[in-house]
## 1
Amino acid sequence: MAKTAKPATDQVAIHDQTLSRGQGGELHQTAEDGYDVLTTSQGTPVADDQNTLRVGARGPASMEDFHFREKIFHFDHERIPERVVHARGYGAHGYFETYESLAKYTRADVFQRPGEKTSVFVRFSTVAGNKGSADLARDVRGFAVKMYTKEGNWDLVGNNIPVFFIQDAIKFPDLIHAAKQEPDRAFPQAQTAHDNFWDFISLTPESMHMVMWIMSDRTIPRSLRFMEGFGVHTFRFINDKDQSTFVKFHWKPKLGLQSVAWNEAVKINGADPDYHRRDLWQSIQSGDFPEWELGVQLFDQEFADSFDFDILDPTKIIPEEVLPVKPIGRLVLDRMPDNFFAETEQVAFMTQNVPPGIGFSNDPLLQGRNFSYLDTQLKRLGGPNFTHLPINAPKCPFAHFQQDGHMAMRNPVGRVNYEPNSFGEGPRESKTRGYRHFPAEEAGAKVQLRPESFADHYSQARQFFISQTPPEQRHIIMALTFELSKVETIAIRERMVSHLLNIDETLASEVAHRLGIKSLPKAAPAAVATRQDLEPSPALSIVERGPKRFEGRKLGVLVTDGVDAKLLKSLTSAVLKEKGLVELVAPKVAGVTASDGSFIEAQHMIDGGPSVLFDAVALLPSEAGVEDLLKEATARDFVADAFQHCKFIGYSGVALPLLDKAGVEKDMDEGVLEISSATSATTFVEELGKLRVWGREPSVKLSSA
Ligand code: HDD
């Protein structure tokens, strides 16, 4: 109920009743004092929402209380089944802007006119965890984009990894059963570090390329804004003349790639399980709109025939160095949903939603997905009319003869609900404007087999590994060691090592050594005897594709009463100039009284703002303040964690004892910089663009056993 009386101008008189407009423009019944009147869902005004109708003040409830019964009934039915995968997600609205006409390749309306903007809704997700799981689970991230084009909705339902675990959709239920919590004990939640997952994986060599990706830092992104997205499969662009060009889709974040360290991820999950949601919410609400470029790899049949791998195999990429990614437009997210359930939860993505000009390839995973997505929406959304929900309805005109069913909101008007009809009513098919499937010539015996061209499971897995920088390779080794250390069945650990031997011997022996496996097992029998030695592809590294500056990142500044007001101001303006953010962490969340007597608000108390929430930290306590911080375990952790997570640390001279107490002073390196003036504050902030001092990592033993 609105707390303030509505001004008279907001009030409207309809049917002799005074009504007022709510936030969304909806009408409310208004009481004499101007308040919106609470009603039942039938519109009956409610007089008492605190007490059920009862017989006598201490007597039994009366069934007659229709308001109570309706309220509880509705509450009892609030939940819908969560998605069988990708249950935890977060979405936003925005637009896609086309750079240039692609009419030569595709008749897709969205790609015809340079500068044209198309509305989109994007939902990011984790895969394995339930709806309430934490954001920093080590997991693939879903990157699902719904474009409301003028010729129908186009759903590009991708991930932040360009390959997949399996080659055929028939294995999807097995993969997901194995990955999710084990069925007898219902744990672990949102983690693949358990026997069932690695048992399945180690018996599924086609997953080895994906294993390299999921054990890399790609699965612990710093922000949804700093990760790539991929359509994964090969699709088709189809032009006006019905000619086809193969296409792979890439989303590239404007602010560069960035992930966190595993030890950091574990702590972020405790400090802020909604870390990614909050980050997206804050950036959009503050007008700092996340942006990606859409890029395409375009190729013809001749390229496909000459390429080392089958372009229908979803466990393979085409390296960008072999076939460059051509930018064709940009995606900007600029509006959060008004209501999470109505939009983010009820949005129904379906791979088969394609407009004219976009077509499918014969990728067996894609073909299977085209069945699964429509089917799952019926279960989740309760009936065939989920396209009537505003988030799922096309924004272009549409006309068909589908009718009735649960919750039908749009029903045909008039007598005719079929075609053809001789009344001349209703929509008709159009050979020119309608969707035309690409007339690919297909022939062959009906068989159940995996083509030979899908058989090489190790070459690209190796290519991925050797394309990583040394810290990234260390992270893969440690991630594999961690995950397999949670596997209780020794034979499964060894089976995984036998696959790693086919990828990289050092990788295999490092993991085996850390797991305490005394003698290396034999390499797994490879379907293709000779592994190809492919050139490294630097585009596969996150570190190589980081940002150029601190833009969009957050500096956490630890302050106390007496903080040097001038220095803090210089530091803050240097960060803002780089388009970064500053948040203050103080002993009391209210804030601190600075050296010039001004009161400065803080965003966190020390316990609530550990350094894992920031990309870099600065320590600006006063001399008196540092004495108190030395007694605070949380202040020591703030510094020690920032150091072991290889972050840049700025400090004022008086903070040295705190660095000492945190065990950092003796190991100080080029990433720990003194801030004593406006100039040194600027130098510090310029350094922040490098994000991490990975060279520190071996010394802090973050990822070497
Ligand atoms: Fe899937 C959801 C991405 C393979 C069956 N998938 C789902 C979502 C994403 C993906 C991003 C969440 C959409 C949302 O936010 O609502 N899925 C992928 C990618 C795959 C993939 C990139 C491989 C390249 N998926 C895949 C297969 C199958 C499914 C092989 C089944 C044969 N996926 C589903 C589903 C879900 C889903 C069961 C669960 C909820 C939903 O569809 O709407 O149908």
Note: The first strand starts at residue 11 and ends at 14.
## 2
Amino acid sequence: MKTLNIGMIGYGFMGRTHTNGYCQANHFFDLQYKPVLKAVCARNEEKAKAFAQQWGYESVETDWRKLIERDDIDAIDVCTPNNLHKEISIAAAKAGKMILCEKPLAMNTAEGEEMCKAVEDAGVRNMVWYNYRRVPAVTLAKQLIDQGRLGKIFHYRANFLQDWTINADVPQGGAATWRLDAEAAGSGVTGDLLAHCIDTAIWLNGGITDVSAVTETFVKERTHAETGEKKPVKIDDACSFFCHFDNGSLGLFESTRYARGHKALYTLEINGEKASIRWDLHDLHRLEYFDHSDDSVVRGWRSVHVTDGDQPYMGNWWVPGLQIGYEHTFIHQVADFLKSLETGEAIGPTFRDALETQKVCDAVLSSAAERAWKNV
Ligand code: SOE
């Protein structure tokens, strides 16, 4: 068994999802490489130590530059707020490390371009954690589309709805609420949630050419969690946009953190000439499928329960009919990454793939700011 020594930077929610992926992948997938949890890095040493103990990291660093310098680290996992992705990734690439970076790739396209150049110049393997591609039902949707079962695609529709920032007392900044601080996050729902929808959309339906967007910031001022200062909120709380795809289809996307009652409702629907599909994160095993070539007397929406061994990833899990969950998407991503080390093939989404999503996000934000259609 060959080893892949991981240096994790950050220990928040995403640090846990990725680490769980490293711990589980070899239990379920037949792989030649095995991740080793070498070190976790965070400014707060006590918290880093507690995380290391809970998850089994062998050591702790408090300075990410030291972690990158270490000879016993093969891959850097960037789980920091977005404003550190660029600096860390470029330094890691220069040190010859593989990089697994949390989404979105960067604060903006210019940063993303620099990051792509750095990993490509250094020739280091790189990947971005757009995990929803690896929900078995979403991967099955990709297979059905690639087989031509939908025919010409007319419409792509996606939503990502949450409600956790409605209360004006939720602060911005700090460890738990940095996603509300533009200096740390770059943008609001566009970079955080729509980026997932855009990544999946480009993967399933091809490139996006132009966009027309509207954004809103419903709570205009929030206290900063660290300084206690009341500051204007500069992120987008909600964003909707229309777009055209390269293949001529129309896209309609909506995301908000103000949809009372919705915690993480990611849904997508694709309508083609021959068939349609739809999927909902809250029922993630189910792929709804309507095939117009079915016998008309029984034609209707089929509810495909994606748990069978010959459906994507499911042969590695339990027995047909039994389910897996959100955390498994990260296990699949780790397994695919480890497999790519064996085969030498690129594994998507690479930094370059994620740059496409970044470009769409930037076009969306500038379209909303200028109230105009924008080319991507
Ligand atoms: C935000 O609440 C968030 O955690 C995102 O940052 C994740 O990327 C998304 O998958 C779930 O929601």
Note: DSSP finds eleven helices and 17 strands in the chain.
